[in-house]
Amino acid sequence: MSARKTSLTDKQSKNGTSKYVLERCASINEYYDVAFKVMLLGDSSVGKTCVLVRFKDGAFLGGNFIATVGIDFRNKVVDVDNLKVKLQIWDTAGQERFRSVTHAYYRDAQALLLLYDITSKASFDNIRAWLTEIHEYAQKDVVIMLLGNKADMAAERAVKKEEGERLAKEYGVPFMETSAKSGVNVELAFLAVAKELKHRTTQQPNEPKFQIHEYIESQRQKSACCGLK
Ligand SMILES: Nc1nc2c(ncn2[C@@H]2O[C@H](COP(=O)(O)OP(=O)(O)OP(=O)(O)O)[C@@H](O)[C@H]2O)c(=O)[nH]1
User: Fold this and answer.
1) Rounded to two decimals, what is the model's pTM?
2) What is the pLDDT of residues 46-79, one digit of tens each?
3) Which of 79, 87, 106, 226 has the fewest CB within 10 Å, making it most exposed?
4) Is residue 152 part of a domain?
5) CB of 95 shorter than 6 A to ligand 1
6) Which domain covers residue 41, as residue numbers?
7) Phi-psi map region of 59: left, alpha, beta (phi>0 left; psi -120 to 50 alpha)
8) Residue 70 CB less than 6 A away from ligand 1
9) Quick one: what percent of the chain has pLDDT higher than 90?
10) Does 113 map to a domain?
């Protein structure tokens, strides 16, 4: 690894928005009604930073791999059912030596995107250990989604899609394969999480519960039929 991505100091990290804020908020260039914290987790080099950059800027960070040091975040406001939902997305370092730093942030997250690399069996095998850590450090009702990233690298695939599906089913979490390079399913992953969190916050007792699995399936069918990403 040739260089390092930047990290936040503790002081900077305390600037985060409070969870489940349901009020019209404004800052220099963003308006939002509700804000949530989402964390990206998974082994080093599975593509967490690239998935975040793809979602935030619509671009792919190719070239030399630069490992994240500590933790960093980016904000993105998305529209969910006429509500402006701000996702504050925390990109964590996958390297073992930063684990104690990132553990401290689990508790504040309302959603966790847990990534493995479909070309790395080791990153997939480590998912169980990540889930153990999540159960230890995160909120009990945190939304978890499993993502098999680098789906564009079919020729080097080391983990079958069915293996990812099976593991996700075992833990009762939604699953999809993504590619930060092609963009496939990246937006869908974040939007599904944003919808789930928004529904949890605004849901009336008589309203039917939002079904994240069904939403993902319906969006996938839509994009398959229309040739969309
Ligand atoms: N082909 C392909 N390469 C990817 C994809 N996502 C990431 N990469 C590459 O994989 C390497 C690691 O990506 P990062 O996003 O930096 O990985 P990370 O999980 O943030 O790694 P840490 O910061 O160490 O935790 C880089 O060289 C990326 O260009 C993808 O979807 N497809």
Assistant:
1) 0.87
2) 999 999 999 999 999 888 888 988 888 999 999 9
3) 226
4) yes
5) yes
6) 34-226
7) beta
8) no
9) 66
10) yes
45 close to ligand 1 (CB < 6 Angstrom): yes
Q: How many whole angstroms from 99 Cα to the centroid of ligand 1?
A: 18
Phi-psi domain of 183 (left: phi exceeds 0; alpha: psi -120 through 50; beta: other): left
Total domains in the fold of the chain:
1
112 in any annotated domain: yes
- Give 84: exposed, middle or buried? Use CB within 10 Å, 0-12, 13-18, 19+: middle
What residue's CA is closest to ligand 1, atom 6? 47
Report the C-alpha gap between 118 and 156 in whole angstroms.
Answer: 8
Q: How confident is the model at residue 226 (pLDDT cuts 50, 70, 90)?
A: low
Pair of tokens at residue 51: 């998935």
On whether ipTM exceeds 0.95, the answer is yes
Identify each DSSP E strand in 21-121 by its residue range: 21-26, 31-42, 66-68, 71-80, 83-92, 111-117
Is the model's pLDDT at 120 over the cut of 90? yes
* Residue labelled with tokens 């889930």: 131
Report which ligand 1 atom has the smallest distance to the Cα of 66: 16
CB of 149 shorter than 6 A to ligand 1? yes
Q: Is residue 119 part of a domain?
A: yes
Three-point CA angle 30, 36, 41, nearest 5° = 115
The per-residue pLDDT for range 175-225, each reduced to its tens digit, is 999 999 999 999 999 999 999 999 999 888 888 888 999 999 898 777 766
Residue 119's CATH number: 3.40.50.300
The kind and range of the H/E element at 4 are: strand 3-5
